[in-house]
Specification:
This protein is of the alpha+beta class. It is 69% helix and 6% strand. It contains 23 helices and 7 strands.
Length: 603
């Protein structure tokens, strides 16, 4: 035992020593240091120490991404790490691994895979409390990274939503690198090449300036390069060419020293665009050509910068029409690839949301793009709120006028008793009857709205529930000479109050819609593999097959009020109760000659 412990400590010590060497060379951007990082990572895995695996793997993946721009190698390391962090207490490390995978996919142009990785990172942390400071920052960064991806996929509403979430979290802990990056993204929101609104451009300029100053203050040179590049582009585009190019060259030199090749590519594109705006076409061509080499070296699939179209314009200005045509063809190919990703992102986002939505909302989500989905969700939330408000109004404000109508019509009838013509008496009867029916509708709607409330599930004795229903309907059962037989009912996990309401509605209907001198109701229960099946058969008037789905829709009636009283809501309530239990309800022919209502309740 002692010998094994000594060996383990030796492996850990060797790993820490190699990591120290590797991190030093990584900070110096020594591109030949990969073999040291690989050896440290392998030793860490051999040790089985998950903390050491995380430290060594993170360092190696960071080296591949930030120093040598070998993004596929970084993704391979992160995938290797993933299997070591599946325990609940390791969720923060796993979330950070997914976030870094999102970065890797982003760098190689796999935007949909990047989006899914960031979403996975967020899902692991979003509802987990408490979070360590590291976990908190991982969540904030994942929000930010997802915002960038949604922007690249032209889903602006979602991009802004996640940017605001990220900014709020970075501000909570005064995390200056995160705040600086958010300033850049806020600047991009206002910086539209086709929009000449001076107020928007001024806001964009201020955001870029704030980001550059803050990142320079803390020595975050990646952020400084991006902020300064965007600031310079804005100046060059609007008649401050020399000042703009100076900022862009500063950004380019910073990227060369401190950033990976993906960031450097952005600076090539910005310089090409700036020289094109300044009509210095030879210089623009040179920068675009250098950027194109790097684009192919990185094996990117999508031209997120759209530089080939601008490059084609530059080549046309130089009279190189054949080359311009080739660049336009490449531009169209990349645009089609990007369009495919945009569609895929919209569909993917809808499918994720479908897991949490139901009914008509699902149908709507399939037909709308993501920006519209956010608005629809907001409207649905408001609709639910208004429905709750309606229930309150219905229970208080609407019932009071109805009571007044009924009371005053009765007073009117008494005050002029003996003076009414027959048709006038009929009018008063209609008024009273209408008020009574409206009150019943309100009561039924209130019951229906309450069905949406959460189920308070307990183990319910169904035989006792049916006994309670029979007591509640005792007078009706006696007057109609009703016979109710009931086999043994299996107990189920359900809300007892709602289950009582379900059986009372079904038994009451079986009595009401029955012209027999002696109505018969038989209730049975059978056990299925994953549920209990309940049946309530009667000898009533039955329901024709073409109407059996229709009767569960609110306010749908098959008979006139003169034939059978009711609001047309009772069976809608039954369906909502069963839906809330994740069961099913339907109608079959009854062996007694009427209708047989069947429903299942999961075990």
């Amino acid at each position: 035992m002692t010998g094994n412990t000594t060996l383990l400590l030796t492996v850990q010590e060797q790993t820490q020593e190699l990591l120290a060497q590797f991190n030093k060379r990584r900070a110096e951007r020594d591109v030949s240091a990969s073999h040291v990082g690989v050896e440290a990572f392998q030793l860490a895995k051999d040790s089985g120490d998950v903390a050491l695996i995380y430290e060594a793997g993170s360092a190696l993946a960071g080296f591949y991404m930030d120093v040598v721009s070998e993004f596929q190698q970084a993704l391979a390391v992160l995938s290797d790490m993933e299997g070591y962090f599946e325990q609940a207490e390791q969720v923060e490390q796993l979330s950070e691994i997914w976030r870094r995978k999102g970065l890797g996919f982003d760098y190689v142009g796999e935007l949909l895979l990047s989006k899914e990785a960031y979403e996975k990172s967020i899902q692991l942390l979003e509802n987990r409390q408490p979070l360590s400071e590291t976990g908190f920052l991982t969540l904030a960064r994942s929000y930010f990274n997802l915002s960038i991806i949604y922007g690249d996929l032209n889903l602006d509403a979602l991009s802004e939503k996640y940017l605001q979430l990220s900014f709020q979290k970075f501000k909570e802990v005064d995390h200056k690198p995160g705040i600086a990056r958010c300033y850049i993204s806020f600047g991009v929101m206002f910086d539209d090449e086709n929009d000449k609104d001076p107020e928007k451009l001024l806001q964009a300029k201020e955001h870029y300036k704030n980001a550059a100053e803050l990142s320079r203050e803390i020595g975050d040179w990646v952020c400084y390069s991006v902020a300064t590049g965007n600031y310079g582009t804005l100046h060059a585009r609007f008649h401050h060419f020399e000042e703009g190019v100076a900022h862009l060259l500063d950004a380019y030199n910073t990227a060369q020293q401190h950033c990976n090749k993906s960031f450097l590519l952005g600076r090539y594109m910005q310089l090409g665009n700036a020289y094109a705006h300044g009509q210095k076409y030879e210089e623009a061509d040179r920068w675009f050509a250098e950027g194109d080499k790097l684009f192919h070296e990185l094996q990117l699939k999508v031209d997120s910068y759209g530089f080939r179209k601008r490059w084609a314009e530059v080549l046309m200005a130089l009279g190189r029409y054949q080359e311009a045509a080739e660049k336009l063809l490449e531009h169209d190919r990349c645009r089609e690839e990007k369009h495919t990703m945009d569609k895929g992102a919209a569909i993917n986002d809808v499918m994720l949301r479908l897991k949490y939505e139901e009914g008509q909302k699902e149908q709507a989500l399939l037909r709308k793009k993501n920006a519209e989905i956010e608005e629809y969700a907001r409207q649905l939330q408001m609709s639910n709120y208004e429905l709750n408000q309606f229930a309150h109004v219905a229970s208080h404000d609407m019932k009071e006028p109805l009571r007044m109508i009924a009371n005053y019509s009765q007073l009117l009838e008494k005050s002029i008793n003996g003076q009414l013509k027959p048709e006038q008496k009929d009018y008063l009867i209609y008024i009273n009857d209408g008020a009574k029916r409206m009150n019943n509708v309100i009561q039924s709607l209130l019951q229906l709205s309450k069905i949406n409330a959460a189920n308070h599930k307990t183990l319910v004795n169904v035989n006792e529930v049916i006994d309670e229903v029979k007591k509640a309907l005792k007078l009706e059962i006696h007057n109609r000479n009703v016979s109710i037989t009931c086999s043994h009912m299996h107990p189920v996990m359900a809300d007892e109050t709602k289950l009582t309401q379900l059986f009372q509605n079904l038994i009451s209907n079986a009595i009401k819609y029955n012209q027999s001198a002696a109505p018969v109701i038989e209730i049975r229960c059978t056990e299925l593999e994953n549920a209990y099946r309940y049946e309530l058969a009667d000898n009533g008037i039955g329901i024709e097959k073409q109407y059996r789905d229709k009767v569960f829709i609110i306010f749908q009636r098959l008979h006139t009020r003169s034939e059978y009283e009711g609001t047309g809501i009772g069976l809608s309530i039954c369906k909502k109760i069963i839906d809330g239990l994740q069961g099913k309800i339907w109608i079959e022919d009854s062996p007694l000659g009427g209708a047989k209502f069947c429903f299942t309740i999961p075990k």
